[in-house]
Amino acid sequence: MTLASSHNAPLRLFWWKAVPNFGDALSASVVAHLSGREVVHVGAGKADLFAIGSILQIARRKLSEAKVYAHSPVVWGSGLLHAISRDFLSNVEIALLRGPISAALLGQKTDQFGDPGLLVADVFDPAPSKTHKIGLVPHHSQMEDAQIQSLASQSEDFLLIDPRQDAASVCHQISACAHIFAASLHGLISADAYGVPSTWVSPGDQGHLKYYDYAASVGRALISPLAWEQIPTQARNLKQPAELAYGAGIARAQADLRNSFPARLRAEQNTGTN
After folding, report:
1. What is the pLDDT, as a whole number, of residue 274?
2. CA-CA distance, 79 to 59, in Å (whole number)?
């Protein structure tokens, strides 16, 4: 595998496509915006870039064997679901990891982190006004849950946001809410990107490491998720902050993301010639 030779050729990106999920689909939108290139989905073994998602387990399975690359595939903002072998690290270029937990598990010493989902407001404009007090963003595996469906129907203040929709629609809906309750990791991340306060809700049987990894990257205090049945009481007692307490951490992560994106993956490159 070699990097596409032209800076204007399609950039080969791996993201998880097994099920419809806006958080994974955001990868193509954010990378296309930042690189200025068309983005195409490829298998992990053929990718130029790994970006949004807990996909380093997949990268490791495909890239652990010693190979010779003209340019090693780049990891930019990806993270882990659990500890894995580090035997693939010599075959990739790590530009940025999602958070300090992923970095520690991979033995990477750095103080720069960020999930590329934090750049969604650069790609999709926010809604012009708030339409709902509360947005509910389940994990994609929870959308048919009867309890969640019943909860969403209790009040016109509640907007149930299906993460299986296209990324632009989900981001528009998130930005149109005054507060987000999310089991979806990128429901929380997108809310942060738009400056919308959010609360973590139980993602069912999904692991929690990725949530803590992201939260630590922006300095967000995240202890344990709320139970879905607790949302009505929490919603009644909400006090909306003027701004997010960890806003400086979000801004720092956004800067790290923009600054760490490799120049060789951008559509235009400054050659230093006149």
Report:
1. 43
2. 11
